[in-house]
């Protein structure tokens, strides 16, 4: 497979996405910058070292992205539910009803 020449193909829209990501999802932005640092690093390394570093960074990025996404989904779902049912209480402890636990 022939590699495409990707020099100077960054568009203003790409930069806007990058800056928006930096503002709204700094964890993802930091992971992208970490990948760019790996690629741009000029010190001598073996291909295996670079491969393992990229794989590790991508795994962490995936974990961070899914965690961020799930937290956003949970927050939106809670907000939607509170709009539909304002009588609901969020994150409150239940009152204990029944026998207290036995003491040791």
**Spatial shape:** elongated
> Number of helical runs?
3
Enumerate the spans where pLDDT stays under 50 for 5 or more consecutive residues: none
- The sequence of SSEs as H and E is HHH
Beta-strand percent range: under 5%
What share of the residues lie within helices?
Answer: 55-70%
For the biggest sheet, the summary is:
none
Compute the separation of the termini in Å: 70 Å
Describe the overall structure:
The structure is a single chain. The protein has 104 residues and is mainly alpha-helical. The chain has a domain at 13-82. Helix content is 63%, strand content 0%. The protein contains three helices and no strands. The longest helix is centred in the middle third of the chain and has 38 residues, at 47-84. The protein is elongated, with a radius of gyration of 23 Å. It starts with 11 loop residues before the first helix and ends in a 20-residue tail after the last helix. The mean pLDDT is 83.
Short description:
This protein is mostly helical and 104 residues long. The chain has helices spanning 12-24, 26-40, 47-84.
Based on the model shown, name its key terms.
single chain, 104 residues, mainly alpha, elongated
């Amino acid at each position: 497979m022939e590699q495409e020449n990707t020099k100077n193909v960054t568009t203003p829209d790409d930069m806007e996405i990058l800056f928006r990501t930096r503002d709204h999802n700094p964890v993802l932005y930091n992971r992208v910058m970490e990948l760019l640092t790996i690629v741009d690093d000029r010190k001598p390394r073996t291909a295996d070292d670079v491969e393992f570093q990229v794989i590790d960074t991508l795994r962490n990025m995936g974990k961070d992205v899914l965690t961020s996404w799930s937290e956003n989904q949970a927050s939106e779902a809670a907000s939607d539910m509170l709009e539909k049912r304002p009588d609901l209480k969020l994150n409150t402890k239940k009152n204990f009803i029944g026998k207290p636990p036995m003491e040791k």
